[in-house]
Write a structure and sequence with these properties.
The structure holds 2 protein chains of 2 kinds. Chain A is mostly beta strands. Chain A has strands at about 5, 10, 20-25, 35-40, 45-50, 60, 70-75, 80-85, 90-95, 110-115. Chain A has a 6-stranded mixed sheet, with no helix packed on it. In chain A, strands 1-3-8-7 form a 4-stranded antiparallel sheet, with no helix packed on it. Chain B has strands at about 5, 10-15, 20-25, 40-45, 50-55, 60, 65-70, 75-80, 90-95, 100-105, 105-110. The radius of gyration of chain B is 13 Å and the shape is globular.
Chain lengths: ~120, ~110
C-alpha cells in the first residue's frame, strides 16, 4: 500500500519554527517530485512548495519564500518542510503529496496540524 | 498568478440527479507541449483530497465513470451524471500549467 505519513506539527508562537516530516512507503520515493500543500481551518487548498527528485530544484509560493525550506532524504524516503518565522496566517493542516502530474500516482498523507498563536 | 474561479460554491443536489461544476481560469492553461493541465479533486468530510481527473478529462483509476471532465483553454466543467450519497464533499479544480499551482475556492456538494 502506498502511504505518506506526516509528523512534526504543533502549537508555536509567532516568529517560531517547526520542522515537518513526511515518510513515504510503498512507492519508489526517489522517482517522484514531492510537494507540501496546506489548508487553513475551514478554508481551501494552497500548494506551498515542490522539490525535484534529487533535491536540487525547488519552488515556493511567494508568501513562504525565504521562510520555508523544502528538502528530502531519498535514502530514508523522507520529505521535510522547515518552517521559520511563522505567522498566524501559516496556521493550517500541512499535507505531503505527490504532484498531480501526468503519469504520477495520486497519494496524500493525512496531514499534520500547525497552529501559530501566542 | 492564475486565478481559478469555481461556480457554484454551494451545490445542493437530489440523489440520482446530475450535477455540474464550472471552473474558469484567468490565463490559458494550455502548456507549451499542447497539453492542458487542469485537475479535479474531491475532498470528503474529514479526509485528504483525492484526485478524480487530470488533464481536463482523464479519470483516475478507481473513479466511478459517473464523473467526467471537459473544457479547454480557460473554461472547464466537472459533471456527475447521477449523484450518490458518497459524493458529498468539496470539489476543487486546480491548474498545474503555471507556477504557482492554484486551486479554485471549492464547491461544496450536499444532498438535498
Amino acid at each position: 500500500e502506498v502511504q505518506l505519513v506526516e509528523s512534526g506539527g504543533g502549537l508555536v508562537q509567532p516568529g517560531g519554527s517547526l520542522r515537518l516530516s513526511c515518510v513515504a512507503s510503498g512507492l519508489t520515493f526517489r522517482n517522484y517530485w514531492m510537494s507540501w500543500v496546506r489548508q487553513a481551518p475551514g478554508k481551501g487548498l494552497e500548494w506551498v512548495a515542490n522539490i525535484n527528485r534529487d533535491g536540487t530544484e525547488n519552488h515556493y509560493i511567494d508568501s513562504v519564500r525565504g521562510r520555508f525550506t523544502i528538502s528530502r532524504d531519498n535514502a530514508n524516503n523522507s520529505l521535510y518542510l522547515q518552517t521559520d518565522s511563522l505567522r498566524a496566517e501559516d496556521t493550517a493542516v500541512y499535507y505531503c503529496a505527490v504532484p498531480p502530474w501526468e503519469g504520477y500516482i495520486d497519494v496524500w498523507g493525512k496531514g499534520t496540524t500547525v497552529i501559530v498563536s501566542s | 498568478d492564475v486565478v481559478m474561479t469555481q461556480s457554484p460554491l454551494s451545490l445542493p443536489v437530489t440523489l440520482g440527479q446530475p450535477a455540474s461544476i464550472s471552473c474558469r481560469s484567468t490565463h490559458s492553461l494550455v502548456y507549451s507541449n499542447g497539453n492542458t493541465y487542469l485537475v479535479w479533486f474531491q475532498q470528503r468530510p474529514g479526509q485528504s483530497p483525492r484526485r478524480l481527473i487530470s488533464k481536463v478529462s482523464n479519470r483516475d483509476s478507481g473513479v466511478p465513470d459517473r464523473f467526467s471532465g471537459s473544457g479547454s483553454v480557460t473554461d472547464f466543467t466537472l459533471q456527475i451524471s447521477r449523484v450518490e450519497a458518497e459524493d458529498v464533499g468539496v470539489y476543487y479544480c486546480m491548474q498545474v500549467t503555471h507556477w504557482p499551482y492554484t486551486f479554485g475556492q471549492g464547491t461544496k456538494l450536499e444532498i438535498k
